[in-house]
Amino acid sequence: MVDTGTYSRMSSDEQKEFNKYLSTFIRAVLKSDATDGIEFEKRYTIQKAGNTWFISTPGSHEPFADIKIENKAVIEALFADTVQNYGR
Question: How does strand 45-49 pair with strand 52-56?
Fold first, then answer.
C-alpha cells in the first residue's frame, strides 16, 4: 500500500478510485519486465493524453495495464506505490 501520508491526502473519491485499480495494477507490475520498483521507475513514466493520465514506457502512448485515469493524483499514487514497495 502506498504510504499513509500520500493516501491520507487523497480525497475519499480518489481513495476509492485508487483502491479500484490497485489489484489489477499490482498484478500487471508483477508480470512486467521490471525486477523492482527502482527499475519500474526507470522504465515507465506518467503521461497525459487528452483528459486522461496513464503510465507508459517513454515514447509509447499505450497505457500500462490498460489503466487510464482522469485524476492525476490517483495515477501518481499507483506509480509511487510500485516504486516504494515492489521488490521489497
Answer: antiparallel
